[in-house]
Amino acid sequence: MNWSLDRSLQRRMAVTLLALGVLTLAFGAGLSVLVAWGVQWLSGVFGLALGTSTLYALGALTTLVGGGVVLHRALQQDAAETFDADEVAPDEYPRLHAAVARLAQAADLPLPSVHVADRDRPFAMTTGLSTDDAKLVVSTGLLDALDDEELDAVVAHELAHVKNRDATVMTLVELPLSSARNLGRMLQHSGGVHFALLGVAAGSYLFWGLGRALVASLSRSRELAADRGASALLGDPAPLASALDTLAEDLQSTPETDARATPLAALSVVPAPRENSGPALTWERRRPVLWGLRLPVRRARHRVNDRYVRPVLATHPATDERIDRLRALERTQEGVRVPKTDR
Description:
The chain folds into two domains: 7-78 and 167-267, no CATH class; 81-164, Metalloproteases ("zincins"), catalytic domain (Zincin-like), CATH 3.30.2010.10. It is 64% helix and 5% strand. It has eleven helices and four strands. A four-stranded mixed β-sheet has the order 1-2-4-3. A hairpin with a 7-residue loop joins strand 3 (124-127) and strand 4. The protein is elongated and about 75 Å long. The two termini are 32 Å apart.
């Protein structure tokens, strides 16, 4: 097997981690200031006189403790538990286990634990903080949809993530982002005891948006790198191209309806299908004010999303683009294999 770590991906992961670390520190500092303002307001209500240094110390301490609690909860999220996947033995899914064992040995990797979720929607992902505790999670829908060669290709793709260690990085970078989004949602529905809470919620969403753009860019790069790694591991890009084509078709008919799966979208082998349906625009069978503007507004929103938002926040390259790259790689390899004739 002619396969080594993707150095370009390693550099991108390092840059993303550094940028997200700086962004996290800035968010934490801003959060500490807002909490300090909140403490100052509360101290005024109760007639307490606190010094500036004390206020900021309390703000920093509250931010650290709260961040630790939220991070601890985020660490408890596990792909296998999220999808109600059970660890399976080789005698239960011999085809899957045989592919994992063969390809893990070829990639010089420890055997990951294998989990299967009883879901019609086809998906596969790998999580874990190291190569030793990697978990491969697949659905019964994926196992039913793919033939043996396509299944090998998907397993090779997931093991490429483990080999490149990007599954570890993605697991780590998702923690502060999911924590910030959960914090924003919690404060958004808290009733707004103080204006500082609104500032914290807004800051959480801003941090999440900027961080999501960074992580999405890395995620797209890691998917292409894993495609190349799987092709090198198999020696042929064609099975993976075929698997992606099959999965893309099946996903259109079985969209994900579990909101718990949203934070794990970046870890799946293929992205979930986009949903373009907008919110309901009727109320008690009456036409709301400016009802005639609904279609232009919806079209404008879709244009902005399609042209500017989705390309930036997409966790995967377009499946057609990935297939085209794999076909081009296949043609290149076939050209290399053609023997030269003597002139």
